[in-house]
Amino acid sequence: MRPAILSLLAAASLFAADPASPEPQIPRKAPELVIQLPGKQMLLSQFRGYVCVLAFMSTTCPHCQHLATVLSGLQQEYSSKGVQMLGVTFNPEATTELGSFTQTYARGMFPVGLSTDPIVTAFVQHPPGIHYIPMIVFIDKNGIIRSQHLGINDSQFFEEKVEVANIKGDLEKIFKEPTIQLPAAKKK
User: Cα–Cα distances in Å, from 129 out to 45, 118, 125?
Assistant: First the structure.
């Protein structure tokens, strides 16, 4: 094979636990994620001990704007149960629009920061190619990704009439299910 094709195949394998499968591995340990806030960085690992709802969004996407509004309401409802909503924007305009997006849609109820497309794509184990937003990841108190919904293959999850019920349903499953202990990673 040509070196360029080999490079593309190697890069594609980074985005899925099993290169032959386009489906992300669930459950899996959430990798560290650095979220850039104005003037500081926030680490996903800071929220160990909380159930986290991590939304990957674009500041210019109407569905993402709606999701941020939904999450701000759910943050109020679920904060007493140890739930933390987190937002990550990763579109090019986000660097200049983050403040207004956070104020208008997240309403200051939960932190929203910046990341990059390659980091987000790797985090959600998205196959190479075009992806649709929003994307949402549910992480338990032990840092295990218990479920995720990517706009490209789960658009029904984000339909306005059922979105709140779907988010609550995933949260309630995490509260009811036993703790997951993943096997330790093999040392190379």
Answer: 28, 11, 12
**Span 22-66, pLDDT tens digits:** 578 999 999 999 999 999 999 999 999 999 999 999 999 999 999
Backbone dihedral angles phi then psi of residue 55, each to the nearest 5 degrees = -105, 125
Residue 22 amino acid letter: P
Secondary structure (3-state) at 69:
helix
What span, in angstroms and rounded, lies between the C-alpha atoms of 34 and 43?
A: 5
Query: What is the three-class DSSP state of 105?
Result: helix
Number of structural domains the chain divides into: 1
Q: What is the CATH number of the domain that holds 76?
A: 3.40.30.10
- pTM of the full structure: 0.83
Looking at this protein, which amino acid is placed at residue 170?
Answer: D
Instruction: List CB contacts of 76: < 8 A, sequence separation 6 or more.
Output: 109
- Give the contacts of 42 (CB within 8 A, at least 6 positions apart): 34, 35, 36, 111, 113
